[in-house]
Amino acid sequence: MDRLGNAVVHTTWGEWLTGAVADPALRPLLGRDWQRYRRTPDPVIRYRFVASRLATKFTAAAALGVRPAELDLAYKIGGRPYLRGLDQIDVSLTHTDDLIAVGISRNGRIGVDAEPADRHMSFDLLQSHVCTPAERAALETLPEAEQTAELLRLWTLKEAYTKALGQGLRLGFTEFGFGVDTGGLLAPDGTPAARGEWAFATRRVLGRYLISVACHDAGLDTSRDTAARTMLDEGFMGAVAGLLDPVEG
Hints:
The chain is of the alpha+beta class. The protein is about 35% helix and about 20% strand. It contains 8 helices and 10 strands. Strand 7 and strand 8 (about 185) form a beta hairpin. Helix 4 crosses helix 8 (about 235-240). The longest helix has 22 residues, at about 45-65. The chain is globular and about 55 Å long.
């Protein structure tokens, strides 16, 4: 975070279960989310909700050098989280199965998305809804197994990009594209659509998930390198872990 201005941290909801169930400081940690937590009847959904919010707050706290309970997590229309009073910091949250991933950036917008790496996506069924003409042409040349894997990568990249824009699924996935085996943003016809202000990356984590990240450099920081190399940064993840014992309230 200090070097590049952005970071992505991943964890599992089970790692936060003890804090979600038994920690006496849970109420001040959740803040405005406490009532939502109490109103959720299903215990699995309730604890997953807590885990994702704690992961977000502890990640942001490690980046900012503050206590997690000092941060006020709020939500924009559509549910995108943000840190109230810290407009210069952007956060993004994604979860699938037992994985939670949090992205944070001081350079500009950030979006993260994750999917199980073995999720099957039918090219025949989804190509007209997900792919640009240039992407379809490139995918059609691949063997079926590679086609499925590449389609999943494109899906997570597009999810991450639209999350960074704050559009979610409102922005059609066929309106922009990415190169096969590359991460550059492309127009539907395959020509470059960005001048370097956006950076993208996809990583496999825990051996079974794909995480994609989209980072925008809005010129808010002196570091011009927005490449998402801080993903899985051990020093930053250590700072997050350092806040867990003891849990601060």
